[in-house]
Fold each of these.
Amino acid sequence: MRFSADRPLNVQPATVRDYREVARRRLPRQLFDYADGGAYEESTLAANETVLEKVLLRQRVMKDVSIREQATEVFGQKLSMPLILGPVGLAGMFAPRAEVQAARAAETAGVPFVESTVSICGIEEVAEATSVPPWFQLYVMRDRSYAEGLMARAEAVGSPVLMLTIDLAVVGARHRDTRNAMVGTPSTWAKIRRGLDIASHPGWIRKVAIGGKPLTFGNLAEVVPGAKTPEDFKEWVDAQFDPSVTWDDIAWVRENWKGKLVVKGVLDPEDARKAVDAGVDGLVVSNHGGRQLDSVPSTAAALPAIAEAVGDSTEVLADGGVRTGLDMVKMLALGARAVIIGRAWAWAVAAEGEQGVGHMLDVLRADADVALALTGNNAVTDLNNDSLA
């Protein structure tokens, strides 16, 4: 693929991985590695993709598949296909007002967008740019008044779903960020290296660093004074993630949130049953994209047992390693109602903005359509273990 980092693409990316390669060249390394990397040796990050690739579809022939339907319903909301753009922190550093661009692409495609607590664009900005309110992702912090304020803001813009991330009692070590001096106290040489990294990407400077201002945390400006940069925010985060949180705290969330409540970060069937007992409306089978505890199961490996453990008592979503529409179909056959993607849309928005995210979604939809037809299914709601070889 040939392109200049500062010019429009002259070759249309055909896959999510094509967008990854474009993003790798267009972004300063420290930002690309932040989005692309995982925890420790990144074995779980890799397993999310490799295990899913090894799941085989069952090809069926001579069935009437002239009608194929990808529409589904999640938490009472109709989706044009079983896919959600998940929360991505600092996304607005990848493209100018990236969260707004991605939310618009999601609305056009008929799928939800989830606003991250640590987005660059605030939830009000995203909501004003679209006619369908975004879902909102929340971390449980020691400062409960901060969290309550964010829930009130999400409710005020009409967010229908709160996605509570529960796998961040402590933060896993992400070695790429350490090497790039994104965490810790950078040495003088590390600061010089970071500066050279940024200086070597004039297109990013012009379009994002200058054209995408303000590069501050839109959801935190009022409650975390001084959180102007990733380094500022990191210090606050280290003091705020709460390792004392238990399932009993779901009741506190319920007191402050009247919409649908989903917990994200479940990998164990016993925890899935506890989530149901706590009264959540749904759960996300997730290992945080391989960014937290390394050497845990991939989501594709963990999903079937969790889906079986909760049955129809709650809606099960899944993320991790979804790079194609075939991956989406596999996840549904393994037991998910819908899948959530994060890196995929981050790469696409970094490469080609709203247009890139829209095209990436079209590619996934087309992939899934072929998979439906050649597995002998007429609708995504028909997918189950019988669709797997």
Amino acid sequence: MAPPIVRRAAPWILRALLTIGFLVPGITKLTPQSGWVERFAGWGYAAWFVTMVGSLETLGAMGLWVPRLRQYAVALLAIIMLGAAYTNLTHPPITAALRPAVFLVLLVGLAWSQRASLN
């Protein structure tokens, strides 16, 4: 069993890492000169999809800090990362799927640590 300070700190640390990891790319997807539209087009997605994903990443990152929304934010961000993993597994380089996989592990860790703190 982890010491109490680790159990209390883990959700905060995971939320901070995930917020940075989703907020920065989410906001850049909302800027026209970021190059995301070209990347998404190369994967076969429409330009509007970049705006939608960026908006959802940004909202999800903020939702991690609202207790009533946290489980929904984790689910939303996990769905986005599953889509990102699929996209990266079906388009070279396949190693790009590592980033979404890491984020999925962090999201599961956050959900688990939140659930553990409720018991």
